[in-house]
Design a protein that fits this description.
The protein is an alpha/beta fold. 42% of the residues lie in helices and 15% in strands. The chain has ten helices and nine strands. The strands form three sheets. A five-stranded parallel beta sheet has the order 2-5-8-1-9. It has a two-stranded antiparallel ribbon with strand order 3-4. A two-stranded antiparallel sheet has the order 6-7.
Length: 218
């Protein structure tokens, strides 16, 4: 997009990418928070190292701790062999915690400790393993509202939001709609184009699902 809002977003993304600063990406569903997280990684010095994604809302609560921190053999029923967690798998690279607002309160203190100490402890283990991981988190939730309801730790919020980046909804950057629409047409059907009449119809919609809705419509 060429809109002022997106150019500002690109500028601050480039500014933070070269650092190890924790980034919190906020915005409505469908605005492209996952793509921004990938961009932070791809233009950083860690670009050749792992980019590990954890969707905090997609993994059942009982399994999320084991997925993040790993486990030792016999630490629970079914743990027939030891396994490193996704945090450890991201060593040297970037860990993307998507939908961080859905992380269970019981796990938030452990994530905070990992961010503060740079260490993980596997389930059933006693050793603290040092890891070098840059964290990018994203949410469409109102984290400050969740803090007020005691559903999200305030100290974790401030540890994640060292460098916040907000992605504007599509309705606030309609100058980008034509470019986005044409890009999706090129991706899905290169031989076709968009008429001015078609673009005008697209401009009249409010796009509550943002760029994802536009992509699906095309």
């Amino acid at each position: 997009g060429e809109s002022e809002a997106m150019q500002r977003t690109f500028t601050i993304t480039r500014m933070v990418a070269g650092r190890n600063t924790t980034v919190l990406v906020t915005g409505e569903s469908g605005t492209g928070k996952d793509l921004l997280a990938q961009e932070v990684h791809l233009i950083s010095p860690r670009r050749n190292q792992p980019f590990v994604v954890v969707n905090c809302s997609a993994i059942p609560e009982p399994l999320l701790e084991a997925e993040l921190f790993g486990y030792t053999k016999g630490s629970f029923t079914g743990a027939v062999q030891a396994r490193i967690g996704r945090i450890h798998a991201a060593h040297g690279g970037t860990l993307f915690l998507d939908e961080i607002g859905d992380m269970p309160l019981s796990l938030q203190s452990k994530i905070l400790r990992f961010l503060e100490q740079g260490e993980v402890q596997r389930l059933g283990g006693n050793d603290n393993l040092k890891v070098d991981v840059r964290v990018v988190a994203a949410t469409n939730a109102d984290l400050k509202g969740l803090i007020a309801k005691q559903l999200f730790r305030e100290d974790l919020y401030y540890r994640l939001a060292v460098f916040p980046i907000h992605l504007p909804p599509l309705r606030e950057r309609m100058d980008d709609l034509d470019e986005l629409a044409r890009a999706f047409v090129t991706r899905f059907s290169p031989a076709m184009g968009l008429s001015q009449a078609a673009l005008e119809i697209l401009r009249q919609h409010r796009w509550p699902g943002n760029v994802r809705e536009l992509r699906n419509a095309i």
